[in-house]
Each structure stands twice: as C-alpha cells, then as structure tokens.
Amino acid sequence: MSETVRLAKRVAAEQSCSRTDAERYIEGGWVAVDGKVQEEPGLRVAPKQAVSLLPGARLEDLRPVTILIHKPAGTYADDQPGSARDLVLPENQMPGDRSGQRYLKRMFNGLKLVTPLERAASGLVVYTQEFAVARKLVEEGRHVEQEYIARVDGQLTDAQLARLQKGMAYEGRAATPMKVSWQNETHLRFALKTPQPGFIEYVCDSAGLRLQALRRLRIGRLPMAGLAVGQWRYRLEYERF
C-alpha cells in the first residue's frame, strides 16, 4: 500500500517550489485535490490522488479581515458555536461585496467579536482579526458613537426627553450626554458612545417606556446599510470606524 504524504510536500515537489510557498498556495485556496479545493497543508494525500493548482494561482500575502454582520434578533453575539459568527458562510455574503477578499478558512483564525450586542437585539456586529480594529472598538470603545433604533410602547414629554439626553449612570459608568429623538410615534433613535449591554433597556424602563425591539444601525462611521438580516460583508480597506 502506497504511503500518503502531506499536501504541502506534494505541492512543493510538483511545482518545484519551497515548502513555505506550497503552504501559501494551499492556505490561499489555490490547490485542489481530486478537483476539490483544500486549504490544509497537513492534509494527507495518496499518490493516486490528483493535485493541481487552480487557474490564476498566485502567492499573496493575505491580510487580516474584519467582518460586519447583520445579527438577527435571538442570536447570540459571541465567539461560540451557534452565535452570529456561524452566519459567515459563502451563501450569506452580501451581494456586491466590493472587498475583493476570497472566502478562506484561515479568516476564522483568531477572529473575535469586538462589539457585544444583546441576544434579543438585532443589527450590526463586528468580528475582526485586525489588531487596530480591535483596539479601536474595545480599548477605545468608549469614544466610539453607536446608533440604535428602539421600538417602544409609551410616550415622553419634552422634559423627559431632555432629561434622557443628559444621559444616565449605569453599572458604575458615569452619565454621559446622548442624542435621543423620536423617529416616529413608536421608534426612538439613540446615538451614544458605546453603551453597555442592557443600557438602552434600562433607560427606557427608567423613563416609563417598554422596549419592544432594539436594532443597532451604526458603529462609529460604519453603517449597516445594504446588509439584510443574516448577511455579512468584509470591511473595505478605506473604511474606518
């Protein structure tokens, strides 16, 4: 019985390249085994199996990615199985994504949620491999404005609305001003610096309003525009939070 070898070793031998370059071809999604793309350099292949480079194969430095997702209400936003991260599948990618990024397994390596959102809420969440993005949204998150739409039962007087705009202390965090306005008779718009989970519901309860639904529309300068519920896209290189 013929012995199997690592896919990277096979590619290096057949393409007359270094093992390092062979691994880059494989992790870049450019290698097929029996016609199926394989991205694991350590995959064992038998001599009878066909190994080939895809047309257009090239060695490239794959930059870390940041992914924007429209999380459905009722879905967890964390790094565990069953969370919004599971929506990052080719069939859920936003049509017209202009990033030019190819869907590769390695984009899940170290991919972390950096914008928590309540399970009951829907809207924009961000997962990233990029250190600069993580620092901006986590370490400097208190300086990043977010925008929400809250569907509520109840009404506010002008005085109550003005009081909300001054902010409210919550779980040890001092009150900071926020923008609160009626979008229509049942929907309030909030624009505030990175609220803690549960804060907007607390604000509504304190004002005698009942929160029915909450949706995050924007994080910093990046809106959710174009993302349908359950869809995702890559952050474009020029986009900044």
Number of strands: 14
Residues in helix, %: 10-25%
The first-to-last residue Cα distance is 57 Å
Radius of gyration: 23 Å
The largest sheet is:
9 strands, mixed
Domain Pseudouridine synthase RsuA/RluA-like: 67-171
EC number: 5.4.99.21
GO molecular function: 23S rRNA pseudouridine(2604) synthase activity; RNA binding
Protein name: Dual-specificity RNA pseudouridine synthase RluF
Describe this structure in words.
This is Dual-specificity RNA pseudouridine synthase RluF. GO terms for molecular function: 23S rRNA pseudouridine(2604) synthase activity; RNA binding. Pfam families: PseudoU_synth_2 (PF00849), S4 (PF01479). With 241 residues, this protein is an alpha+beta fold. It has three domains: 5-53, Structural Genomics Hypothetical 15.5 Kd Protein In mrcA-pckA Intergenic Region, Chain A, CATH 3.10.290.10; 66-141 and 222-234, Alpha-Beta Plaits (2-Layer Sandwich); 145-219, Alpha-L RNA-binding motif (Alpha-Beta Plaits, 2-Layer Sandwich), CATH 3.30.70.1560. The protein has five helices and 14 strands. The protein has helices at 7-15, 19-27, 131-139, 158-165, 199-206, and strands spanning 5-6, 31-33, 36-37, 44-45, 51-53, 66-71, 112-113, 122-128, 145-153, 179-182, 187-193, 210-219, 222-223, 232-234. The strands form three sheets. Strands 6, 7, 8, 9, 10, 11, 12, 13 and 14 form a nine-stranded mixed β-sheet that branches. Strand 7 and strand 8 (122-128) form a beta hairpin. Helix 1 crosses helix 2. The chain is elongated and about 80 Å long. The mean pLDDT is 93.
